[in-house]
Amino acid sequence: MWTVMDTPVGELRLVEHRGELTRIDFAPYQPPRDGLPLGERVDDDPLLAEARDQLAAYFARERRDFDLPLAPRGTDFQQRVWQELRGIGWGETTSYGALALRLGMTGAASRAVGLANGRNPLAIVIPCHRVIGANGKLVGYAGGLERKQTLLALESEALFAL
Fold first, then answer.
1. pLDDT tens readout for residues 44-60
2. N or C: which end of the chain has fewer CB within 10 A?
């Protein structure tokens, strides 16, 4: 099942399979890479409604973390990278090399980490936008650098406090 929602970074498609969120896609939508069927659009599914609510609260700066059942599909290495991404807090950034070191690898593995980061099927909820280049510049983002910049700016607002 899936639904859509409008956000400050454009329309998002939220995809659920067997009670778990499996993908968040940026428009324009690409064919699914995970092999799961897209199914039908169901706007009132409880999980998809909760995901929409939590994302809306995130964009309103009322939520910093997500509490949703997630089931991203990927290799063991991708899963490790995506799990590590969840440890990058609101308003924080890290580099691909630093992420590789946190995974017990050398900084030379930053390219592999970057590739896994780019395959993250649950953008925003698994915060791959918080990974930047070693020189502090915005590099690579499956949703486009403009979206990445918007998400990082949203999280850096000094006026926001929980």
1. 999 999 999 999 999 99
2. C
**Domain 76-155 sits in CATH 1.10.10.10:** yes
Q: What residues are paired with 94 via a beta bridge? A: 131
The CATH 1.10.10.10 portion of the chain extends over: 76-155
Give the active site residues: 128
